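Consider the tokenized backbone below.
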């Protein structure tokens, strides 16, 4: 539906076009009107019509003046001039100003007006198509320009020669040389991002990142950002004209901070940055890029959203493979044997402090972490109820190998050793128990989701039922049946803490009857599952 405005100082003329001609059934809705040129302009500011019909002879601002102003404000708005027989001068002026058609007011009828409106509609369609074609063309030019820039940058980073003409076309700011700064950017947590969003979504995010950060770069220098792949981006910026090293350093830091801020603000992503060396010739960029990539390996040590400056001196050069030394291994074993949690955690922390001090590579850090996890397993392997913690350490090994930061590894190992001491504190109480009691407890912990009884446990352990009942009650201060109920409720509390629905919790801990579950839960906790869930 095309919206039409009729401008005429005569009410009858406006009403005839609006009501009598029934133009809406052909897709033209005359839903705006004005009695003067001034009123028409005011109404257009609030709501622009698709087509304008105007009388050329009006008091005050006539149709010619109105058309002049309309074409100045809205060049693509099609207009139809309305005139009388004696108004040839107006007609000629209107056509000269770009009116699509002119109609004699004395001969207005539905067919004549509809034909003129359809001419306007065709002009609108052509204008829209032309605009659409122009947008497509500009988009294709932009894509071609970005592809050309990326190709030229990749050639420079590989050390390939780039023809001066090609360099001037794709990267004109580099062709002049002088103070060319390379900045390397690597998105954090790429593995997690790919798992959470998929590789295709990350690929689609690339153009948005380029668009956002390109605008940031233009605020500081002439430059370009290109995507290398796998979350890696290279920024080349020309700071020609700056001679002070302090000024260059300051601008570089400001640029990186702004890039980091806008990346997180608009994409909710973080990245590590390497401020490369400033070079004077494009041909020096390959060596600069190679060095920046080597420095980027330090992001494993510096953590997320870090800034690494190649101009900053390092305490030592990265060494070879470092592993957990025998002395620290013995110290940890002794601390575990003494159940000295604080001493053990201090030693674990010093292991990571040493890895950071010597700027150990990723492999060394991972090997040290795996050795620390193996120590946990070694200390509990022969102890009862250790299967769950052993499984945790096995899963943790996988996380260690996929972590992007040594800080993540530190946190993972601290968690593992905290769990170790929590386990030891609980397990030590079982050391005084009869071996058959321990075996019965292990049986309960493994099968509490099932229907289990003292008879079944005695058969599994190949001991007398009465004997098992007596020693179990003596050691645990609970009967076998009471302990099964107690252990189920402890597991149920843990599941409620995670937000699991009560019905699913009851089934998960082996109690299919929900009413019975409520009674047992209240008997052991003093509250109902509903109230317990509200406290969490």
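A designed sequence for it:
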């Amino acid at each position: 539906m095309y919206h039409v405005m009729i401008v005429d100082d005569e009410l009858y003329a406006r009403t005839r076009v609006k009501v009598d001609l029934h133009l809406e059934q052909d897709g033209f809705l005359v839903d705006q009107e004005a009695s003067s040129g001034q009123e028409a302009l005011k109404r257009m500011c609030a709501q622009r019509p698709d087509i304008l019909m105007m009388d050329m002879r009006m008091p005050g601002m006539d149709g010619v003046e109105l058309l002049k102003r309309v074409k100045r404000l809205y060049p693509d708005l099609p207009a139809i001039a309305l005139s009388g027989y004696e108004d040839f001068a107006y007609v000629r002026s209107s056509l000269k100003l770009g009116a699509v058609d002119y109609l004699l007011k004395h001969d207005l009828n539905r067919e004549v007006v509809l034909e003129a409106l359809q001419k306007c509609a065709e002009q609108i369609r052509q204008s829209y198509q032309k605009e659409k074609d122009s947008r497509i063309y500009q988009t294709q030019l932009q894509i071609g320009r970005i592809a050309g820039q990326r190709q030229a940058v990749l050639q420079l980073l590989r050390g390939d020669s780039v023809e001066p003409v090609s360099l001037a076309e794709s990267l004109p700011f580099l062709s002049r040389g002088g103070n060319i700064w390379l900045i390397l950017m690597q998105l954090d947590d790429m593995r997690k991002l790919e798992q959470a969003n998929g590789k295709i979504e990350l690929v689609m995010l690339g153009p948005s990142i380029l668009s956002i950060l390109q605008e940031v770069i233009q605020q500081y220098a002439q430059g370009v950002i290109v995507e290398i792949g796998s979350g890696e981006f290279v920024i080349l910026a020309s700071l020609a004209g700056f001679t002070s090293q302090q000024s260059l350093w300051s601008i570089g830091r400001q640029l990186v901070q702004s890039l980091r801020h806008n990346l997180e603000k608009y994409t909710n992503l973080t990245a590590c940055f390497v401020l490369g060396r400033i070079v004077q010739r494009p041909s020096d960029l390959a060596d600069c890029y190679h060095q920046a990539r080597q420095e980027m390996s330090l992001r494993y040590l510096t953590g997320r959203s870090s800034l690494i400056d190649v101009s900053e001196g390092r305490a030592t050069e990265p060494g070879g493979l470092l592993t957990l030394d025998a002395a620290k291994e013995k110290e940890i074993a002794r601390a575990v044997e003494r159940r000295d949690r604080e001493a053990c955690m201090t030693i674990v922390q010093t292991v990571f402090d040493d890895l950071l001090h010597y700027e150990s590579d990723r492999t060394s850090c991972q090997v040290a972490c795996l050795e620390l996890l193996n120590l946990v397993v070694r200390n509990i392997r022969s102890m009862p109820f250790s299967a769950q913690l052993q499984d945790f350490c096995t899963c943790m090994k996988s996380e260690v190998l996929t972590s992007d930061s040594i800080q993540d590894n530190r946190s993972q190992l601290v968690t593992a050793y905290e769990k170790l001491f929590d386990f030891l504190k609980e397990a030590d109480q079982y050391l005084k128990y009869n071996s058959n009691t321990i075996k019965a407890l292990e049986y309960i912990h493994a099968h509490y989701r099932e229907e289990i009884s003292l008879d079944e446990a005695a058969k599994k352990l190949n001991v007398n039922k009465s004997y098992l009942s007596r020693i179990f009650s003596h050691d645990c201060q609970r009967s076998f049946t009471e302990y099964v109920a107690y252990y189920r409720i402890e597991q149920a509390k843990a599941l409620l803490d995670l937000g699991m629905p009560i019905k699913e919790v009851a089934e998960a801990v082996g109690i299919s009857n929900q009413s019975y579950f409520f009674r047992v839960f209240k008997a052991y906790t003093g509250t109902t599952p509903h109230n317990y869930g509200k406290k969490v």
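Residues 110-158 form the longest helix (49 residues).
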